[in-house]
Every structure is written in C-alpha cells, then in structure tokens.
Amino acid sequence: MKDHFAITISRNETFKILFKRKLLAESNRVIELREQYKGKYLKPIFYFPNDIFSEIPFKKEEHTSYCPIKGTASYWSYKDAKNSIWSYEDPLESASLIKEHYGFYENKGFKIIRDKSL
C-alpha cells in the first residue's frame, strides 16, 4: 500500500474564492484534490482554473517546492499575501487534472466557499 497518494475530483458546483472577504473569482470548473500521507488525510485543496484570473495582477515569485506525487509547484503573490498562490505548471501524470489551476492558502487571506445560492 502506498503511504502517499491523492485523488482528484472535478466538482460539479460553483465555488468562490475570496480575498479578505471580497470576491476575487468564481468557477464551476474547480478540481478538488484529496491527499493522504502516512495514513492521514490532509485537508482537501480546491484548485481553480487559472484562466479566470487573467485580469487579476498575481505576481510570480521565484520560490518553488516539490511534491513526489504532484511535481514542482510555482508560487505567486497577490497584494500583501506573498507566496500565497501555487500551481503545478507541469504536474506529474498522477496529478494531471490540476494543470493550469491555482491553489490558495486560506491562512494568507483567501477563503474558498461553495456557492449554495444555486
């Protein structure tokens, strides 16, 4: 049994991303990634398609990190939230669904909510 793996799920509902309580974007093309590491489930990550942020001035940073099941992550900053957004621009095959999607650190001013108004 693998001690580190992830599954990806294409969500069929609308999610919103807020920054400091203000709506940044919304999408019904969100990918949920559920990861397990050494028998423990990590908090699910919701990845938003990067094309919905074309008008938002994210600043690409030099910082990168590596995950053995997803690949190399690149990072972006938004306003005062440094390295708060990440993407696997060329993910490993096991995580290919999150290509061209951004993840957001909720402890750096972002909040992801499921739109229950629909």
Description:
By secondary structure, the protein is an all-beta fold. It has one domain: Metal Binding Protein, Guanine Nucleotide Exchange Factor, Chain A. The protein is globular. Strand 8 (71-78) and strand 9 form a beta hairpin. Strands 1, 4, 5, 6, 7, 8, 9 and 10 form an eight-stranded antiparallel beta sheet that branches. Strands 3-2-11 form a three-stranded antiparallel beta sheet, with no helix packed on it. The protein is 0% helix and 55% strand. The mean pLDDT is 95.
Write the layout of secondary structure elements.
Blueprint: E1 4-10, E2 15-19, E3 22-27, E4 31-37, E5 40-41, E6 45-49, E7 59-67, E8 71-78, E9 81-87, E10 101-104, E11 110-114
Antiparallel strand pairs: 1-4, 2-3, 2-11, 4-5, 4-6, 6-10, 7-8, 8-9, 9-10
Number of domains: 1
Given this structure, which CATH class is correct? Answer: Mainly Beta
Tally of contiguous helical segments: 0
Strand content: over 45%
| Number of separate strands | 11
Alpha-beta classification:
mainly beta
Helix content: under 10%
- Please, what is the average pLDDT? 95
Oligomer: single chain
CATH level-two architecture: Beta Complex
| Name of the CATH superfamily | Domain of unknown function (DUF427)
Report Rg.
14 Å
CATH fold label? Metal Binding Protein, Guanine Nucleotide Exchange Factor, Chain A
**Unreliable spans:** none
Which overall shape is indicated by the principal axes computed on the Cα atoms? globular
How far apart, in Å, are the first and last alpha carbons?
40 Å
Largest sheet: 8 strands, antiparallel
Order of helices and strands: EEEEEEEEEEE
